Amino acid sequence: MLQLHHADMSTCSQKVRLVLAEKNVKAEEIMVDLATGAQKKPDYLKLNPGGYVPTLVHDGYAVPESTVICEYLDEVFPEPTLKPADAMGRASMRWWTRLIEEALHPANSAVSIAIWMREGLLKQPPEARERGLAAIPNPGRREWRRDLVENGVESMHFAAGLQTLDKLIGDMNDALAGKPWLAGTYSLADIGFAVYVNRIDELQLGAALFGGRSNVVRWLDAVRRRDNWRAAVEPYQHAPVLATMKRLGEAVKPRVAEVMKGLRG
Ligand SMILES: N[C@@H](CCC(=O)N[C@@H](CS)C(=O)NCC(=O)O)C(=O)O
């Protein structure tokens, strides 16, 4: 039996659902309410020690980490394959998926907190906000988040996140010159990057990051036109959440343009 613990609009959950949909595999869906901290409850931590979504449970075996889950699903359900046929293509795919872990996910978290999530967090009573921060075991990570919540787009971590995203989107644009997909064929690399590039667009950062990068714009359009996107992303989108991201993203556009100018010189 296959169970997926996930959340509607979490990028990491979207990744895993895209893989399942591409393979036409159904999993029992267990929604994890991130707003109430359900991901940090002891029972859930037994499945996912970091306290994050998603987690896949296959015949009682828990697989945490979206990139690991996606590779696992591609092995257990090999058709259609989401890996290039040759070793060089697979190395290229893994280069990109490694960048998700190392750079794309943290940078996306920084800009998401600074632009969007902080509004809700700042409405919490200070004690509740402190409890949320205290649940983050790593002190560096805790202070990183505190700074983004308190200072939003004025946080140095926002500028750092934007710089990382600018580099990654530029690299993608170069890699996509003359080819439709990052590693040659549609693969786990495209699925992994798609959900974050889509989130960048939802946060209204496209004007700053996609300008002059027509290969990325074409690629984003292509990933969104696929059947798996219609099955795994669109039905889980919440219009009020998208509207909030749009409102907040529009409001910081002038500041984003200034920060970008400072970064690019
Ligand atoms: N590296 C992990 C990251 C998972 C992650 O950060 N998930 C977010 C949602 S996209 C989450 O659970 N956030 C809740 C929290 O930080 O408590 C993965 O790829 O699965």
Give a summary of the structure in a few sentences.
The protein is of the alpha+beta class and 265 residues long. It has 2 domains: 75 residues, Glutaredoxin (3-Layer(aba) Sandwich), CATH 3.40.30.10; 178 residues, Glutathione S-transferase Yfyf (Class Pi), Chain A, domain 2 (Up-down Bundle).
Task: Please write out the topology.
Elements: E1 2-6, H1 11-22, E2 28-31, H2 42-47, E3 55-58, E4 61-64, H3 66-76, H4 87-123, H5 126-134, H6 139-151, H7 156-175, H8 188-202, H9 206-209, H10 214-225, H11 227-232, H12 239-251, H13 253-264
Parallel strand pairs: 1-2
Antiparallel strand pairs: 1-3, 3-4
Helix pairs in contact: 1-3, 1-8, 4-6, 4-7, 4-8
Your description of this structure?
The protein is of the alpha+beta class. It contains 13 helices and four strands. Strands 2-1-3-4 form a four-stranded mixed β-sheet, covered by helices on one side. β3 and β4 form a beta hairpin. α1 crosses α8. 35% of the residues are buried. The mean pLDDT is 97. The site of glutathione has 12 residues, from α1 and α3.
